[in-house]
Amino acid sequence: MPFECPQEVVDDYEKLFENEEDYDVIIYAGENKEIKEIHAHSLILRTRSQYFRIAFSKEWSEKKDGKFILRKPNISPQFFKMILRFIYCGKIDLEKLQGPDILKLLIVVDEINIQTLIKYIQEYLTKHQDEFLHQNPIGILETVYQNESFPILWDHCLEKLCEEPEILFKSDKFINLKAPLLELLFKRDDLSLDEIVIWDNLIKWCLAQHSNISQDPTQWNNDETVIMERTINRFISLIRFDHISSEDFIIKVYPFKEIMPKDLINNTLVYHMAPNKRLNVNLQPPRQTKCIYDSILIKSKHFAIFSSWIEKKHDSYYDLKNIPYNFNLLYRASKDGNTVGEFHTKCDNKGASIVIVKIANSEQIVGGYNPLYWDSISGWLSTADSFIFSFTNRNNFQTAKVGHVTKGMYGVCCSQGPTFGGGHDLNLTRDNTWRSNNPHSYPKIDIPKGHNVGGYNIFMVEDYEVFQVIKK
């Protein structure tokens, strides 16, 4: 059996780095009063780095008294010592550095081209420095965008900003974002913003590029109209106007018609005013925002809306950053077995939960909130806080309807499948049939019409999920 002692080798190389015995490289790092002389060994540096193999070649090297001389005024002595320690013994400690310094170190490591360390620092930033991104999203995004060597950090920044776009769009520096970066963000399918909010931010950015032009488009002269048209032109095709409500389109988009393609304005007006008329245009799909919760049926923003309904906040919704609940997936019919028995196995005695039901052959979802619990033996239970809901189109949050339980009525029934209302407003029977008899215990919401059996509305379901709701 071969004998190995890699740690001993690492320790010996670290000692060599620290005591500088027989060094043949002098590095002048930093500049002015910060300049420091650092000693190293060319054999080790050449062996571990292509950058140093070139730097110490005959064509590039500077030598004095038999020693290689390397001048790096753009790299601080602290950073250079950290890099050399990694070259000698594979060790680096980033915990004492703040986010901005770690990013600066990454740029330096990229210059010296140490691929293993480039990858490690990117991974460290993505795992431990999320708050850094909140502090300076513009600066980080532009720094990473300019460097093709940081794909891990680039992907993380884009995903994070699409998941929590308020980090960027509510920043005071948003208007300073370079046009190519704004274009990249608007192209993303997972940008978690309503389309009208994307439009509002685009207008805000365009106006900020020409602060001498009035914010009121009716006040623009011909030259100003041309300037604004040229500014917005590259972004127009990225806005999904068919996913902006007719009211928002008329109030917020139509005033800027003079700087937009006339056929786009006309087609969008027809789309909203005569929705049954077929247009000779390709309608863009809605943005499919990534769900930070384990759902295949809904987006993260749905959970923010559910949280608002649980708190009976109907005038304003929570956003993704301040959701006061955790939502833990308990059960998915398509994954765990689509039977009432499996539902009870996974969901009984887990406390409050919310049920999300995807209607077959449509984008509609319905469901309900049980603030108590499920079990297999209890019958009807009274609640003051339960509700049922519907999204006629799960991709359009404006199609939401919610109804809280009527005072004095039963809210839930435990002994069947998920059941809301004393009159089975929304009910999964023991034989796995979804039906409704709404309104009874809840106000009327848009539960789809299927076919009538025994006075009940029977409808087809593609899948459903149940999430445990826990106050943070």
TrEMBL record:
TLDc domain boundaries: 296-470
Limits of the BTB domain? 23-96
- Pfam family of this protein, just one? TLD
* PROSITE patterns with a match to the protein in the record: BTB, TLDC
Task: Tell me the protein's name.
Answer: BTB/POZ domain-containing protein
Give the species: Rhizophagus clarus
